[in-house]
Write a structure and sequence with these properties.
11 strands; 5-stranded mixed sheet
Length: about 250
């Protein structure tokens, strides 16, 4: 028997179309072991070679040995993403401290780049821990991502959408996560994996029947806020982000 291919994916609402496609393919599910967790955990597993493919935050790509983007699909946005933002009680100009969501390195680095280049704002960055959203008070703001960001929209007076800010700053769409392998994999398997992604993205109406969420308009989220096709423009946006990330660390 051939060894199963280990696939790690983010357990957020934004991955539902992609995972729906995978789970609809019985042949594919017979060949993979699917693991779901939050973004930084999936990236860790790929980095440590505990999985073969991961839907990982793109900021981790330079750290993965033999990293290969393996599908034509991603978690991206053409403008306002709503689930990745800085939330605060006061206008950003009055913020002096920003808590950084521990669940994704891409989002916190995007926030750092935009604060420096787009908002021209210096703040004190603090690595956040569990239940950090309760600390969004006064002049302390936070980067919040994923499903919790959709909840935070109703709780915070101010929201600064990082997808929209990136688009205003660069004119390009943004890619938050991509399917990345840390080794060469069978081409026929990758074609099947890609086709499964396509199926999910092309059957959003069916995906919606599997989602029970009342905090936000999920159809709008899947079809207007999120953009799943890994276009040429998204690849340009990703390349620019990785260049800026290198400069930020330098």
């Amino acid at each position: 028997m051939n060894k199963r291919i280990s696939v790690g994916a983010v357990s957020y609402l934004n991955t539902r179309p992609l995972l729906f496609g995978l789970k609809q393919s019985e042949a594919l599910m017979d060949r993979i072991t699917l693991i779901e967790d939050y973004p930084s955990k999936i990236a860790e597993k790929l980095l440590c070679n505990e999985i073969d493919i991961g839907l990982i935050p793109v900021a981790m790509i330079p750290k993965i040995q033999d990293a290969q983007i393996v599908t034509d699909y991603c978690i991206g946005t053409e403008n306002e993403v709503v689930s990745v933002a800085i939330f605060s009680e006061v206008p950003l100009v009055e913020v002096d401290t920003i808590l950084l969501d521990y669940q994704s390195r891409t989002s916190v680095n995007l926030a750092k780049i935009l604060l420096k280049e787009f908002w021209n704002k210096e703040v004190n960055f603090v690595e956040a821990t569990l239940d950090f959203r309760s600390k969004i008070k006064g002049t302390t703001a936070a980067v919040v991502i994923g499903d919790r960001a959709l909840e935070q929209i109703k709780l915070s007076e101010y929201m600064y959408d990082l997808g929209a800010a990136w688009k205003l700053h660069t004119g390009l769409p943004f890619v938050f996560a991509a399917w990345v392998a840390n080794k060469s994999l069978d081409e026929l398997f990758l074609e099947e994996f890609n086709a499964a992604n396509a199926f999910g993205v092309n059957h959003i109406k069916e995906v919606l029947t599997t989602v029970n969420y009342e905090g936000y308009d999920i159809e709008k989220y899947f079809t207007q806020n999120l953009s799943y096709t890994f276009t040429k423009e998204k690849r340009e946006g990703l390349k620019l982000f990785l260049n800026k990330l290198e400069q930020l660390k330098g």
